[in-house]
Amino acid sequence: MSHDKPKTTDIKVEVALTRDVEIIEMRNMSNVSHKDENTTTWAISAPKQEDDKEQNDWLDGFRRADRRKLKKGWDKGYHSEPKPHVPGDRYFDIRAANAKTATSALARELKGTGLFITSGSALHQGGPGSVLLSYIVIGALQYCTMQSLAELCVIFPIAGSFSAFSTRFLDPSWGFSMGWNYCLQWLFTLPLEIIAGAFTITYWNEDISKSVFVAIFLAAIFIINLFGVKAYGEAEFVFSIIKVTAIVAFILLGIVINIGGEPTSGYIGGRYWIDPGLFNNGFKGFCSVLVTSCFSFTGTELIGLAAAETANPRKSLPSAIKQVFWRITLFYIVALMLVSLLVPHDDPRILDASSSNSAASPFVVAIETAGTTVLPSVMNAVILIAVISVGNSSVFGSSRTLAALADQSMAPAIFSYVDKQGRPLAAIIFSCCIGLLAFIADLKAHDVVFNWLLSISSLATLFTWGSICLTHIRFRNAWAHAAHTLEQLPFRSRPGTYGSWFALAGYVLVLLSQVWIAVDPVDHKKNETTNDIVQNIFLNLMAVPIVLIMYLGHKLWYRTNFVALDDIDIQTGRRYYRVHLMSDQEREARVTWPLWKRAYRYFC
Predict the structure, then answer these.
(1) What stretches pass through the bilayer (predicted)?
(2) How many angstroms from the chain centroid is the CA of residue 286?
(3) Nearest alpha carbon to residue 212 among 446, 444, 439
(4) Where are the domains of the chain?
(5) Are 383 and 361 in contact (CB under 8 A)?
(6) I need a surface site. Which of 356, 381, 432, 462 has the fewest CB within 10 A?
(7) Helix pair 172-201, 375-407: axis angle to 10 deg
(8) Which fold has domain 99-575?
(9) What distance in Å separates the CA atoms of residue 42 and residue 81, rounded to the nearest whole number?
(10) How many angstroms separate the CA atoms of 337 and 335, rounded?
(11) Distance, C-alpha 330 to centroid of its chain
(12) DSSP state of 334
């Protein structure tokens, strides 16, 4: 019996380096007449099996991705001179994330409970003036931080993103602490958001068990993440469209309600800014609102995790990150300003604006005040979608961070399992298992557990953002120390290191203000016991001891040192671009642009 060799055709492929395997992206050059000038890749020739029965084997995609075995364990996928490793005849591109996916990842700034629900608590504690001012301040800090993150992720699109940057540019122990801090933040955000979603359902029906909806939401989130980064991006793109449409509609409706007035009182205008007033509880009220603003912006840094799975980081990431400026301006400032015009800060309906009570949402209260019957239900449906969207993002963020930690031997090795489709399966499954905590929603003591879970993730994001700014400063120092110029960077932060220093100082001040609020809260009660005071301090500052314990414990155990400037590695995992060619082309194109387009492209 003769065995004919399968026919082969020579094609060119491009090598894109990801976290733990060199991925071969197939491109038949006979069908592609142009090449992306924004990416430098290595072209090779490889045989392609035309009659491969396993191509349609869906289960094969769940097998572990092949990696090269080095003398000392598995490689991490970072090579300055890569040699393509072809795993059989299967070719997958887990860099499936495109500009739309990246933009959707950034849309996490339209937070679920942060914007729609807990903004009511912020309005009550600080008044409309404090709410607007705090969101403007945190928004300015976020703009500088995200610009710094974009610069780092474009040149180093590696797994782990900011936690890996902390290990490389600051201290391995600090990288360990930041990685686990961020991972725990998102691990416990999942059950929090699912609980909030289950309680949102009670707006329509309180008789159905909340566990039923917990199971439905958890299963939906698991299925979305099981289909990889592209499905995640597409789902978040749809969620973002719904949220953006709802907020734009609310802005238009809010203007109509404000001008037309309530059914019983007529024109509203700025009445509630005069009585009961623009501010509440003075400067302490403003400080108490800052943490709510930070909680609302949590998730904007997720785009850094998507960088390792993005086909062209230079093209996708900067444009997506710049949009944060406009989204903050339009969706947060304008929407919350209208809310403050329609709902007084002493309205008793927003006094119970906890993260699990959507009925106390100032958005719902504002619409109910106008006397409408259907629109409050529509707004609650939007809140439900927003909450599920954040839960979806929490699985994405925690699983990618956990897998990156495992690759750096900072987490159990099982979590480094990445299949041929680029999914960190073990980490995804573990993240969803933590979501099972949401079944406490039917317990009487769910509020106690909910508050302790919330305390773990409340201030954790401040450490992440501050660490991003500090690593950017250290990277710039190392870049200059290696005799590189800023013109060689494929993307430069607009505010530069000045913006990083400004944001870092701002986050430190916000953290100090929360220490003050924890010791002497706004709603301080005279009959509080010492036990109540200590419990309140831990509930508000739980992230601080967690970060310090992980950092000091790792440092004492492994005796790590702060990375000296001469020892900082700016080559491993670096993505090379034809910067001079791209800059010349962009300058030539920019000359023909009108002024409005140049201004738009500068910010967006």
Answers:
(1) 149-166, 186-205, 212-232, 238-261, 324-343, 425-443, 449-470, 498-517, 537-553
(2) 25
(3) 439
(4) 11-48+86-93, 99-575
(5) yes
(6) 381
(7) 150
(8) Amino acid/polyamine transporter I (1.20.1740)
(9) 9
(10) 5
(11) 19
(12) I
CA dist 154 → 38, 298, 321, 461, 573 (Å): 11, 21, 11, 22, 11
Angle formed by the axes of helices 119-155 and 335-342, nearest 10°: 180
Of 37, 7, 4, 18, the closest CA to residue 588 belongs to 37
- Partner residues linked to 46 by β-bridges: 11
Mean pLDDT computed over 367-393: 82
- Return the structure tokens found at 513: 């203000």
Q: Three-state SS for 311? A: coil
Let me know: does 571 contact 150? Beta carbons within 8 Å.
no
The rounded distance, in Å, linking the Cα atoms of 169 and 178 is 13
Which class for 460: exposed (0-12), middle (13-18), buried (19 or more C-beta within 10 A)? buried
Q: Give the other-Cβ count within 10 Å of 454's Cβ.
A: 20
Residue range 498-513, pLDDT digits in tens: 999 999 999 999 999 9
d(C-alpha 460, C-alpha 294), whole Å: 10
Strand partners, 27: 12
Distance CA 109, CA 105 (A): 9
- How many residues belong to the chain? 604
